[in-house]
Amino acid sequence: MRTLESNALLLIIGVSLQGQALRQQADRFGILVGGAVNPDKFSEAPYAAAFARELNMLEPENVMKFGLIHPAAGRYDFTAGDRIVDFAQKNGMKVRGHTLVWHSQVPSWVTNGNLSSDQLSAILHDHISTVVKHYAGQVFAWDVVNEAFSDSPPALRSTIWFDTPGIGLKGPGTQYIEQAFRWAREADSSALFFYNDYGAEVVNAKSNAIYAMAKDFKARAVPLDGIGLQMHLSLNANLARLGENIQRFTALGLQVHITEMDVAVPVNPDGTPVDPAALQKQAQIYHDVAAACLQYKGCSAIQTWGLTDKYSWIPGFSQGKNGLALPLDENYQPKPAYDGLVRAFESAPLPIQPLTGSFEVVSATLGTTLLAPDSLASVFGEGLADSTETGGVSLQVTDSSGVARVASLLYVSPRQINFLIPADTQPGLATFTLSGASALSGTGSIQTVAPSLFAANANGLGVAAGTAVRVALPTMIQSPVAVFQCGSAPGSCAAVPIDLGLDAPVYLTLFGTGIRGRSTLDAVHASIGGKPVPVLFAGAQPQFAGLDQVNVVIPLELRGSGNVDIQLELDGRVSNTVQIAVQ
Ligand code: G3I
Predict the structure, then answer these.
(1) Residue 458 falls within a domain, yes or no?
(2) Ligand 1 within 6 A of 25 CB?
(3) Are residues 431 and 482 in the same domain?
(4) In this structure, what CATH number is given to the domain that contains residue 475?
(5) Is 420 contained in some domain?
(6) 511 touches 541 (CB < 8 A)
(7) Do 167 and 55 have their domain in common?
(8) pLDDT, position 540
């Protein structure tokens, strides 16, 4: 027989997340957590280990950019990108491609080639087509166009691809961007194609311009699948309108990826933060960004621009004035920023996953498939994990007489759903039907016991737990003592004697199932040794979902009775008995 403690433990294990890497946290939400990577560093064992341990997505920080992957006319070099794909595949990670069309890192054979718009158009078409095809089926999403809007929007940035001289589609609109997306789709019918930019994280003039483009593209079925919010932040970042921005893009049916997050910290010449509170402030920013993303189903990736402070573009870019921008320190140890991310994952409500694959229903208290009405049961299913569906799940129990009842769901995670077997479920084989994005069903055997307080079935198995508290003086409450001691064999709980020798009332607290939501105090009656005893409390146990608590007084006249049975009666139904010993 399981005691309350072991039952509680079972529930707690189901939700305890301590010690999980970021990728496991992200898996629970069906989202990606990534990092920009440099394949030259894979040979550094702690680097490779940290990326593989923490992340389920990689993005090349540089090696898929035009200048590196297409260094000369007609010559492509996929070596470094292929190493990333290989590492990712070996470690069960996805690869996000970056980037096909950008004004920076364009090789000199293009910038100095004195090329006409027609020639540039042909070069870009070939570039997009060749790179996307090479990685088809290996790179699941691409930043097709990067940073095309100027810093004083709504203008487009003047670039070699847009207007200097451009690929022949300059003019007031975003036609050259549209063309790039169409070429990308032509090359891969299933990858996701993103527009990626910085400074457009919150609702502002730049994100308004991008939003207008995105809305237009969606309306005209231009193959745009998502928006990348780079998220290169400082400690002064104002994120008040981040959620609103994510919301409006996802409402267009687009995915949002946080693509390049880092938070630059001003540092002293010795590398320490100028502000002693900087790392805590940074942690809060990491938390807030992740929490905002987790609020929206369409925000499906959180990526940092690197992973360790050992390798980050920030110190070089700021001439050493800033640094410490990433979640792991130079020795690959987690910083407060890392904890900020973990905290966001741990406190975000879990999406309800679509139901695919098989599941089994077991009693949460017994771990068997004997299920009593009113008892806590669990559905476990590996297939419950693979989704991002946040729609409602409901669970219906159809009993042997063919009556279907909706069960109350108490806890839902990607792999586990805890619920109460409806109270009036009839004995025999019941069918459980889970409904969500798709439906699943399974069967379980219902064994009757009423009101199932103390035990989950008539064999005496299941929850049976209690504590006794003696109140000697108004200010003195003795520590609670156990009243049952249970072995591992079914029905092996023995009563632990309760001493009534001190002429002070002893309160007995019992835990089980069967009261929740159906009874008032008046409806619950208790007897010990056949004699009615006062019930002081009957109702839901606030700390443990699905468990009830009943508090009764053990009258002093029971002193010396030895073994006596406790029984409850609820709505005219009588529970099984549990024995206590009274000295
Ligand atoms: O690899 C060469 C090396 O051979 C040479 O000796 C050295 C000399 O400068 O340069 C090396 O290339 C550098 C490259 O990073 C790899 O380290 C480039 O000069 C340098 O400009 C390049 O900087 C990158 C920058 O983009 C420009 O492309 C950063 O690493 C990279 O973090 C940064 O990433 C961008 C995103 O792509 C777009 N969003 C902004 C983000 C940060 O600027």
Answers:
(1) no
(2) no
(3) no
(4) 2.60.40
(5) yes
(6) yes
(7) yes
(8) 72
How far, in Å, from the CA of 316 to the mean position of ligand 1?
A: 10
Q: Which amino acid is at 386?
A: D
Under DSSP, the state recorded for 349 is P
Q: For the CA atoms of the chain, what is the radius of gyration?
A: 31
> What is d(CA 418, CA 441) in angstroms, rounded to the nearest whole number?
15
Give a yes or no: residue 97 inside a domain: yes
pLDDT digits (tens, 9 = 90+) for 42-68: 999 999 999 999 999 999 999 999 999
For residue 142, give both structure tokens.
């691409």
Alpha carbon distances (Å) from 82 to 38, 75, 191: 12, 16, 17
- Give one DSSP letter per residue of 353-368, joined into a string: PP--S--EEEETTTSS
Q: Which residues are tagged catalytic?
A: 147, 260
Confidence of residue 142 (pLDDT cuts 50, 70, 90): very high
Q: Give the pLDDT band (50/70/90) at residue 169.
A: very high
Q: Kindly indicate the confidence band of residue 286, based on its pLDDT and cuts at 50, 70 and 90.
A: very high
Range of the domain at 551: 469-582
Q: 24-29: long-range contacts at Cβ-Cβ below 8 A with a sequence spacing of 24 or more? A: 25/341, 25/342, 25/345, 25/346, 26/56, 26/302, 26/345, 27/56, 27/385, 27/414, 28/345, 28/350, 28/385, 28/413, 28/414, 29/294, 29/345, 29/348, 29/350, 29/351, 29/388
Residue 443 CB less than 6 A away from ligand 1: no
pLDDT at 582 over 60: yes
| Domain contains 24 | no
Residue ID of nearest Cα to ligand 1 atom 15: 62
More confident: 335 or 406? 335
Is 324 in a helix, a strand, or coil? coil
Amino acid at position 479, single letter? S
CA distance linking residue 566 with residue 549, whole number of Å: 14
pLDDT of 514-529, one tens digit each?
665 555 677 888 898 8
The residue type found at 318 is S
Is 375 touching ligand 1 by the criterion CB < 6 Å? Answer: no
Cα–Cα separations (whole angstroms), residue 573 to 424, 449, 513? 11, 9, 14
Average pLDDT over all residues of the chain: 83
CA-nearest residue, atom 35 of ligand 1: 61
Higher pLDDT, 496 or 395: 395
Residue 320 and residue 378 in one domain:
no
Which residues make beta-bridge pairs with 498? 582
- In the predicted model, is pLDDT for residue 455 greater than 60? no
Structural domains of the chain, count = 3
Q: Which residues pair with 509 in a beta bridge?
A: 467, 551
* Average pLDDT of span 2-6: 28
What DSSP letter does each residue of 365-387 carry, written as one string? Answer: TTSSSEE-TT-EEEEE-GGGGS-
